[in-house]
Design goal:
single chain; 158 residues; 77% helix; globular
Length: 158
């Protein structure tokens, strides 16, 4: 008998959000070295100070960490499904990902919300505020999908 997928974990709406969130985090991660190289080329100082600078840097680190861990889960899952002999060989990597996932996803979501809060109360441009809100939403989408698809779980069966 066919059971319908619950609406809160339906890939019909969750998959486009996950792809968009990963794209946003990847673009933000790529902007980090590009902006540093552009600032270096034009000899422009880093314009942020205090909590804004801290939030900006930690947010970019969180973008890299969340995107790498989520993509690692995707690669490991597809590798194990496509070649069943890899299940035993990748069990150590699965254990490392299970240990990292709660810290990375929950920490990334917390940093995303804190970064958006810092940007919203600053005098930055409207596009920066919209982007900070979009990044916070992206972190929350990836946290939700990690919980729904049991990337964050405390049992040992896989």
């Amino acid at each position: 008998m066919y059971d319908r997928t619950a609406w809160w974990k339906s890939p019909g709406w969750l998959l486009p959000l996950v792809v968009g969130a990963l794209l946003a985090l990847s673009l933000n991660s790529l902007a980090w070295p590009l902006s540093a190289l552009i600032r270096r080329h034009y000899r422009v100082a880093y314009g942020l100070r205090g909590s804004e600078a801290t939030a900006h840097r930690l947010l970019r680190i969180a973008c890299v960490a969340v995107a790498v861990v989520f993509l690692a889960w995707i690669v490991v899952s597809f590798s194990m499904v496509s070649v069943l002999a890899l299940i035993e060989k990748l069990s150590g990597l699965v254990a490392v990902l299970r240990i990292l996932s709660p810290f990375v996803f929950v920490g990334g979501a917390a940093l995303g919300l804190w970064g958006a809060w810092v940007v919203f109360r600053s005098q930055r441009r409207w596009f920066t505020k919209v982007w900070a809100g979009f990044l916070a939403a992206s972190f929350l989408v990836l946290l939700w999908s990690a919980v729904v698809f049991r990337l964050i779980s405390f049992h040992s069966g896989f």
